[in-house]
Design a protein that fits this description.
alpha+beta; 6-stranded mixed beta sheet; 5-stranded antiparallel beta sheet; 55% helix; CHAT_dom; TPR-like_helical_dom_sf; CHAT domain-containing protein
């Protein structure tokens, strides 16, 4: 027998015995014994008319077996026979001889079973005979089956585990008995009892599935008495409760209904059956939210109590169940009568439950839960304390090994958490965390309650984080809630809640760290939770409110008013769905008020602000005086009242704003993560009072509030940095003596603001707000007579992300020598963090994993921070990787003067470092900073290397002439005078490095001078010095350090790419490559890559091998995402700044970027040098030739030729002469025949050593 094909006339799911996704297998039975079995298979073919399963058998049938059966069995959790056929050996032989398949209809095991057809393929071959002589007698007769069931029942009652395969085989033999007989039904029911008891012993879901099948087969065979129906309903309910299979719920209720109807009122089992039906209706309500199910559940529960005998244990169970249903209806409707009724029921339950009864601890815990709800409703501390006492009693009465202990610990944790919310006693919070952690520990994997307990622990940890700001609590909360989501299958009624909770934790983590991945995932998860929550569900309002809060944060980050409007819409719906008596009502109102205030700030619609104030005033009537969150609510009201004062000028609003914020501050505990935000709000109100009412004391108090917020050890870094910023701003404005301290605190926060655990993209986003503060701080230090400190601060606030990358790559040789294990761990974490910095956020999907790349980066950043703190406690390592002091930064000037140009609010200054002089030369500048982001765009409106003259070039050149003249007079001449650079020269020019900040970073300082009719020798920078730029002092120091190290022989990578989609054709790149090869011939090896071979991978590989690199191609600056700025390579591929970040080139020396805008940077990140030239510098190159804007394709080859002819004219080649080589190449462009225009030669610059 080779194969079997089974066909059903209708697709799976059309018949209850053929569910979707089922598998099918076949068994060969001889004398009722299983001789061979196929593997289970999925459907092979499917159409609207039929579906087919094909099973491979390859089984020999010896001649001495006259009769056999083929059974067809379904598998989906449990297994069940669908039908069989009986055949003789002669029939099989005859079909095998003619190689003709045998087709027949299966004999059904039930009259209402599916109609199945089977085709069997036979063949006749001579094989060694297996005579099956040891096959026992036919077990499929009723007496034998009954005997087997009786034996298994006895073994089960003795606690002996049975093999599931035995139970499945016995089930098959039962169904092979005479069809649809009551005897067969009774045997199936007995088998159901065996399977159910086996499930109770081992809790294996497949055994419970088999019990459901057996009980169902008993009923199909006519065993429809109330008891048999009850057996099936109990098994179905257990599958719903313990395995989360909600697809059974309607069937379960229907079977229970029938069982109850068949049970007379005088029957002693009536009460239990009514109670079971009530429980199932409660479960369906919890799944789908139909209030009629809940009302009927309570009605049936009361009927069950009436039917029970007063004082017996069944009555206690029924009272307990009714109490649960009343609690649920209270949660939905907020009717205190339901809650009081529940408490009465539960108290009576306790009275009926004797000491020592195994259910007494659970019932004590249930009473505690009901008292807890009433305490929340009435703000009744007596109920709350009683709930904690009862919860503790329940735990203490329960042995360590009792399965209910986890439930009791979890309930105790809830009571402690609620008391913490009321009283703010951190000891209660700590005890709640301990109880819930222990509940998780004693809940085994696979237990259906484990997700709930994990989630409860996560909630406590979130609150502990809010109180103590321990990031480990926050990260553990995210990890726990992620695990909960993974443990819960799609379609589970709790899935929406778990998604919402995870979204909340990710949102809080975003607020603390600023990782946009967290924010994106949070919003997507909360939206999914809302969509999965049906209307009428008790949690719908809460989830809508959470969504509104997420949309508000999204608006604050991206500025899309549509997000804000939608936030208000969903918040309004949440408030409307929540009765005034519900404990969540004030929180929903507060959230709506926050969104309305934000919209007022955008649109200045006073109605939004007035409504916000009214909501926040009303919610204070709903929230208890002692509630932990009352302080936050008061502070939010104060913020709206302040805005109302600014709009109306009514001083009463300002007085109220100050008053409520002071009350808020009194209510918030020290160390609470929200305290800095409340301090800021109060400071804002007090400073407004100072400015409008000339109240000097209020001004001093405002600065005190901001300074406390900034110096807080808890709270979001973004909130604390904001506090430090406004502290510094207004302290300087009012000449408060704390202004220098304010700048010191703020600048010290920069590494935390651009936290190394974030992606580089996110770090750039957060550091953007710091640029002006750092420059104003430097100006303050200068005014205070401490220009050396100004230099230190400018360096700390300049190229922060680049400095972090250098920090990650810093050798730790001393640490390796003295503490090798610490050094190894530190370097490993640094490498991992460097790799994770380049991760991207994919907005197209929400990637939720047990440990995402962001989670891993966060963990590594925290571990590295702790390790860094540990290293700094070691003798000799106190300043390990600390920011450099001024005396260390002076090393940047070893090759020539370094001129730091600081552009602050009210002035510009030059700070000059000179080798051998241990102080700063300060030069005040009479220069107005220009928005050079616009000038750069004007000078080169295209990213492309251009072939010809651009339209409007004359007007651009006129403007550039004026800019260069202003720079010469306002910056260069005062600097040269301070340096005593007075004599122009055409040879032996000195080197000078420019270090511009703010909008000065976009100025072509190297080209400053007087041109045209005013031009004379000595009227421009290039007549005195050779200019270079540097993104930081540290970059120069590292470049000089590398100069002293031995290097391998010079090799040059030359990349030519004239073609790129969307860009003009630049044939000059090929000429450029030819010139380079000619200049290098016989001197250094050149590795040439062109438009077919210059792929990013190949280019990066050669960059590791070659110390020099030349790129003749298109370059693009991405204004929206600067780290995606790129060189365009072969086949429209890109070598991006993000990829360059990842390179660490030990042999790199010189790079020449003969492409457009490779040193332009971003006007939003002027201090960060986010351009390709800086990227190559930090990747390891000591010097880079680059361009500030568009260059001409016919100029580039000649510039490259002149540079390389100069550099390669000495042996060995010296890359430190690159700036000089470029200087003379540009001079030749400017002064040669038909001299080039300013627009053509000014863009070329040198960066680095």
């Amino acid at each position: 027998m080779h194969s079997i094909r089974v066909t059903a006339p209708a697709p799976p799911g059309m018949h209850p015995d053929l569910p979707a996704n089922m598998q099918m297998f076949a068994q060969l039975l001889v004398n009722g014994n299983i001789i061979q079995q196929t593997g289970a298979v999925d459907t092979e073919e499917q159409s609207l008319e039929a579906v087919t399963w094909k099973m491979k058998f390859d089984c020999d049938l010896p001649v001495n077996i006259p009769n056999f059966q083929i059974a067809i069995i379904r598998k989906l959790g449990s297994v069940r026979i669908l039908g069989s056929v009986s055949l003789t050996w002669d029939e099989a032989f005859s079909f095998g001889q003619v190689h003709k398949p045998y087709k027949m209809a299966l004999t059904k095991v039930n009259n209402d079973g599916p109609s199945l057809n089977m085709t069997v393929a036979f063949s006749v071959v001579p094989v060694p005979q297996n005579d099956y002589s040891d096959i026992p007698a036919d077990p499929s007769n009723g007496i034998h089956v009954f005997s087997m069931i009786k034996q298994m029942l006895q073994e089960t009652q003795q606690g002996k585990p049975l093999d599931l395969h035995q139970l499945c085989a016995l089930h098959t033999n039962v169904l092979l008995l005479t069809q649809n007989s009551r005897v067969r039904g009774k045997l199936a029911n007995f088998l159901g009892d065996i399977c159910f008891k086996q499930w109770e012993m081992a809790r294996e879901a497949a055994t419970l599935d088999q019990a459901v099948q057996a009980y169902g087969d008993a009923i199909r065979d006519g065993l429809t008495d109330a008891g048999s129906l009850q057996d099936l309903s109990v098994a179905l309910f257990q599958r719903i409760e313990k395995c989360g299979d909600t697809g059974d719920i309607d069937r379960c209720i229907a079977v229970m209904e029938e069982s109850v109807q068949l049970t007379s009122d005088g029957d002693s089992l009536k009460s239990a059956r009514l109670s079971n039906l009530a429980n199932c209706l409660l479960r369906r309500y919890q799944n789908y939210g139909a209030l009629e199910d809940l009302d009927r559940c309570i009605t049936l529960g009361r009927h069950a109590i009436k039917c029970s005998v007063d004082g017996d244990l069944d009555q206690a169970a029924n009272l307990n169940n009714l109490g649960t249903a009343l609690d649920v209806r209270y949660d939905k409707l907020g009717d205190l009568a339901d809650l009081n009724d529940s408490i009465s029921m539960r108290m009576e339950t306790i009275q009926l439950t004797p000491d020592g009864h195994p259910d007494r601890p659970t019932r004590l815990a249930n009473l505690a839960a009901s008292l807890l709800s009433r305490a929340d409703h009435l703000n009744d501390l007596e109920d709350l304390n009683q709930a904690v006492v009862l919860g503790e009693q329940a735990v203490n009465l329960t042995p360590e090994n009792r399965p209910t202990r986890a439930f009791l610990l979890s309930n105790l944790g809830s009571s402690l958490m609620s008391r913490f919310d009321q009283l703010g006693n951190v000891d209660d919070l700590s005890r709640a965390v301990v109880a819930r952690r222990e509940a998780v520990r004693v809940t085994p994997a696979g237990n259906p309650s484990r997700p709930t307990r994990l989630s409860s622990l996560a909630t406590s940890l979130m609150e502990q984080f809010a109180q103590c700001a321990q990031v480990d609590d926050l990260n553990e909360s995210v990890a726990l809630r992620t695990e909960v989501v993974f443990l819960t299958p799609d379609g589970h009624p709790d899935k929406a809640g778990w998604l919402a909770n995870l979204g909340d934790s990710l949102e809080k983590r975003f607020e603390f760290f600023g990782d946009l991945d967290d924010l994106h995932k949070s919003l997507a998860l909360i939206e999914d939770a809302v969509n999965l929550t049906p209307d009428g569900h008790p949690s719908k309002a809460e989830r809508l409110s959470n969504l509104g809060s997420s949309l508000l944060i999204w608006y604050e980050k991206l500025g899309d008013l549509e997000d804000l409007n939608r936030s208000i819409t969903v918040h309004t719906a949440a408030v409307g769905l929540t009765p005034d008596t519900h404990v969540a009502k004030p929180f929903h109102m507060n959230n709506l008020g926050a969104s309305l205030t934000r919209r007022y700030e955008n649109t200045k619609n006073i109605e939004d602000l007035t409504q916000s104030v009214m909501l926040k005033q009303k919610l204070l009537e709903l929230i208890p005086e002692s509630h932990l969150k009352r302080g936050l609510m008061l502070s939010n009201l104060g913020g709206s009242l302040l805005e109302l004062f600014k709009d109306t000028g009514d001083s009463d609003h300002l007085s109220q704003a100050v008053t409520v914020n002071m009350k808020a501050l009194q209510l918030i505990s020290d160390g609470h993560s929200e305290k800095p935000a409340i301090l800021i709000n109060l400071g804002n109100c007090l400073f407004e009072k100072f400015e409008k009412l000339q109240d000097e004391q209020a001004g001093h108090e405002a600065i005190s509030m901001w300074s406390q917020a900034a110096c807080s050890e808890t709270g979001s870094i973004h909130v604390r940095f904001h506090a430090a910023s406004i502290w510094a701003q207004y302290a300087r404005k009012t000449q408060d003596p704390s202004f220098m301290k304010a700048y010191e605190v703020a600048i010290g926060m920069l590494p935390e603001l651009a936290w190394i655990g974030l992606s580089i993209r996110d770090r750039h986003l957060h550091i953007m707000q710091a640029s002006e503060l750092v420059r104003n701080g430097a100006r303050a230090a200068i005014v205070s007579g401490n220009p050396e400190l100004a230099v230190e601060w400018l360096e700390q606030g300049r190229s922060v992300i680049w400095s972090q990358l250098l920090n990650l790559r810093t050798p730790v040789d001393d640490l390796k020598e003295k503490h090798p294990q610490l050094a190894s761990k530190f370097l490993d974490l640094s490498v991992q963090l460097e790799k994770s910095g380049g991760r991207k956020m994919d907005l197209s999907e929400t990637d939720i994993r047990l440990q995402s790349d962001a989670d891993l980066a966060h963990r590594n950043a925290h571990e590295r921070r702790k390790l860094l703190d540990e290293i700094r406690t070691l003798k000799g390592f106190e300043n390990f990787l600390m920011p450099k002091k001024f005396h260390q930064l002076l090393a940047a000037a070893q090759g020539g003067p370094v001129v730091l140009l600081n552009s602050a609010e009210e002035s510009c200054d030059a700070l000059i470092l000179l080798s051998g002089i241990n102080e700063v030369i300060h030069v005040p500048l009479n220069f107005q900073p220009i928005n050079m982001g616009d000038i750069t765009a004007d000078m080169g409106s295209s990213n492309a290397r251009l072939n010809g003259i651009r339209e409007g070039e004359k007007s651009r050149e006129d403007r550039l002439l004026a800019v260069l003249s202003d720079i010469w007079k306002g910056i260069v001449q005062p600097v040269f005078q301070a340096l005593a650079i007075t004599k122009p020269t055409k040879s032996d020019l000195a080197r000078l490095w420019w270090y511009p900040t703010g909008s000065l970073a976009f100025l072509p300082i190297h080209a400053a001078g007087l041109y045209g009719a005013e031009e004379t020798f000595g009227s421009k920078v290039s007549d005195y010095v050779i200019s270079s730029y540097t993104p930081s002092l540290s970059a120069l120091i590292i470049g000089f350090e590398h100069a002293s190290k031995p290097r391998r022989s010079t090799q040059l990578l030359a990349v030519s790419q004239p073609i790129a989609t969307g860009q003009v054709y630049i044939p000059g790149t090929r000429t450029e490559l030819k010139y380079i090869q000619q200049a290098a011939h016989g001197k250094i090896r050149v590795v040439s890559l062109d438009e077919t071979t210059a792929t990013p991978d190949r280019v990066m590989a050669e960059m590791r091998n070659c110390s020099w690199a030349h790129f003749a191609c298109h370059g693009v600056q991405d204004a929206g995402s600067p780290i995606e700025s790129a060189l365009l390579l072969a086949n429209d591929s890109r070598l991006t700044l993000a990829q360059i970040f990842q390179l660490s080139l030990q042999n790199a020396d010189l790079a020449f970027l003969s492409a457009c805008q490779t040193a332009t940077g971003s006007k939003y990140l002027p201090e960060e040098s986010v351009h390709l030239a800086a990227g190559l510098l930090f990747a390891g190159y000591r010097g880079v030739i680059a361009t500030m804007w568009t260059i001409m394709d016919n100029d580039a080859p000649q510039v490259a030729k002149d540079v390389y002819d100069n550099l390669l004219g000495t042996s060995p080649p010296d890359s430190t002469r690159a700036a000089e080589a470029l200087h003379f190449a540009v001079q030749r462009m400017r002064e040669g025949p038909g001299g080039k225009s300013l627009l053509e030669w000014v863009p070329y610059i040198h960066v680095g050593v």
